[in-house]
Amino acid sequence: MGAMAIIPILLMIIIYLAVIGFTIWFAISLIKAQKERNVVLEEISSKLDGIKISKKEE
Fold first, then answer.
1. How many angstroms separate the CA atoms of 55 and 58, rounded?
2. How many CA atoms lie within 13 A of 28 on its CB side?
3. How far is it, in rounded angstroms, from Cα 53 to Cα 47?
4. How many CA atoms are closer than 13 Å to the CA of 44, on its beta-carbon side?
5. Is the pLDDT at 58 greater than 60, yes or no?
């Protein structure tokens, strides 16, 4: 009977660790995506710096 009592505790610990692991994975994935996006935006910005923008003559 005592061995059966430890199963719910182990299950809760496993679920708790899974939630923590998923949260860490999600945060790392989000940070990587933001870094890649920043690189692309920097490239676009540097290309736009080289282009002269003139207003339409009215």
1. 9
2. 6
3. 12
4. 6
5. no
Side chain identity at 11, as an amino acid letter?
Answer: L
CA distance 49 to 41: 12
Q: pLDDT grade, residue 47 (50/70/90)?
A: confident
- 56 secondary structure, DSSP code: P
Residues 20 and 25: their CA atoms lie apart, in Å, by 9
pLDDT at site 57? 59
Single-letter amino acid, residue 47: K
Give the residue-averaged pLDDT of 33-57.
Answer: 85
Q: Return the ∠ at Cα 49 (arms to 47 and 50), rounded to 5°.
A: 70
